[in-house]
Amino acid sequence: MLLEAVEVSKTFRSRRTAAPVHAVQNASLQARPGEFIAIVGESGSGKSTLARILLDLIEPTSGSVQWDGQEISSMDRAEHQAYRRNVQAVLQDPAGSLNPRKRVVQAIGEVIRLHGMARSSADVGRRVAEVLDLVGMTPGRDFMDRFPHELSGGQRQRVLIARAIALDPKIIVADEAVSALDASVKAGVLAIMADLKERLGVGYVFITHDLPVVRKVADHVYVMRHGRIVEHGPKDAIFADPSHPYTQELLAAAPALP
Ligand code: ADP
Ligand code: MG
């Protein structure tokens, strides 16, 4: 299984001046189950736009997204639904991504029902408890009836990961998913994500401006600047010997690892 962006571009019109904004230009990448790829770049470099294109939330101006060689724009309804189950989002701002009026069991249960993964309340409940256990909220049953405000920031982020995992995805696209968390909480959530890669074989497209995080978890790194992917390669190669001046600059500015 392969998720691929093939020479994807996205041009917006500036809301203010109507001038074209080339948010993403000719970007290509490949993501696979069981592999942790990271996209790094400063704010405004086009990372979130590329993520939204991969998630089929917006259409590219040119180029295509392919799943196992099939363009997602040519998928029929059933194929689209399967794609949306296989490629899940964990976005930034866990507070905004969870409805404050819904208990954890509802928040996760509704996507399980929507995708027909389970129907009866008992089966849905079992699955919710199981995925909460998987993200380290143990025992899962103890967290099911909580509201988002009864959880810490790290726990809310884990619930979002659990909700994604509940659909048995092949790839998770995570956009600044841990960027707002304190260092120790961040480390915990990253460890869970790495653990899920090993245990479930899920792959990640992990978007961040946080280089120490990339160094810790990524297998393969893409560096974005001004809408373009300027360099990519295995993490160790990128960190040991960055070839693009922008990557060298990024690495020089990154704080040392603890
Ligand atoms: P990043 O996630 O790397 O910070 P974004 O993908 O959010 O970057 O944004 C890339 C560029 O595209 C920015 O200049 C941003 O202002 C612009 N942009 C993003 N979304 C829109 C939109 N809906 N309309 C107009 N411009 C946009
Ligand atoms: Mg962004």
Task: Write out key terms for the chains shown.
globular, 258 residues, Rossmann fold, alpha/beta, binds adenosine-5'-diphosphate, 6-stranded mixed sheet, binds magnesium ion
Which helices and strands, and how do they pair?
Blueprint: E1 3-13, E2 20-31, E3 36-40, H1 47-54, E4 62-67, E5 70-71, H2 77-86, E6 87-90, H3 94-97, H4 104-114, H5 121-134, H6 153-165, E7 171-175, H7 183-200, E8 203-208, H8 211-217, E9 220-225, E10 228-234, H9 235-240, H10 245-253
Parallel strand pairs: 3-8, 3-9, 6-7, 7-8
Antiparallel strand pairs: 1-2, 1-4, 4-5, 9-10
This protein binds adenosine-5'-diphosphate and magnesium ion (MG).
Walk me through the structure.
The protein is an alpha/beta fold and 258 residues long. The protein contains 10 helices and 10 strands. It has helices at 47-54, 77-86, 94-97, 104-114, 121-134, 153-165, 183-200, 211-217, 235-240, 245-253, and strands at residues 3-13, 20-31, 36-40, 62-67, 70-71, 87-90, 171-175, 203-208, 220-225, 228-234. The strands form 2 sheets. A 6-stranded mixed beta sheet has the order 6-7-8-3-9-10, with helices on both faces. Strands 2-1-4-5 form a 4-stranded antiparallel beta sheet. The model has no long low-confidence stretch (mean pLDDT 93). Magnesium ion binds next to helix 1.
